[in-house]
Specification:
Elements: H1 10-26, H2 37-56, H3 61-87, H4 93-121
Helix pairs in contact: 1-2, 1-4, 2-3, 3-4
């Protein structure tokens, strides 16, 4: 079976696993949040890994960096939604801190990937 380049990226693997954790955590949210925070968190978390994958298929490093930037934006969106979920007591402090640490790791890796892509493209950071 062919392995695509994005599947070899540690940040994609981490983002995919993070998304699965979001799915697990949101099963405990109130049913009233089915079309609110549950949907928003799940879609935004999936976008992180999806944007990394889509960007890997682009020809130019500038285009790749654009999708990496979009993935970074999705991580910040998820963080915002996690903060709100925690403040509403939908997420325990233990889970919140664990997910926040995972997001920090993902954003650090996305920054490094974006800097590499911009360096290769000749663009300035």
């Amino acid at each position: 079976m062919y392995i695509f380049s994005f599947e070899k990226l540690g940040v994609w693997v981490e983002a995919k696993e993070f998304s699965k954790h979001i799915y697990e955590i949101t099963t405990r949210f109130p049913d009233t949040e089915k079309f609110g925070l549950i949907s928003q968190l799940r879609r935004a978390s999936i976008s992180i890994a999806s944007d990394i994958a889509e960007g890997s298929a682009r020809k130019s490093y500038k285009d790749k960096a654009h999708f990496t930037t979009m993935a970074f934006g999705s991580t910040v969106e998820v963080l915002n939604q996690l903060i709100i979920s925690f403040e509403l007591d939908f997420v325990s402090e233990v889970d919140y801190l664990k997910l926040r640490a995972q997001l920090e790791s993902i954003t650090n890796k996305l920054n490094a990937l974006r800097n590499y892509q911009l360096d290769k493209s000749g663009e300035t950071k």
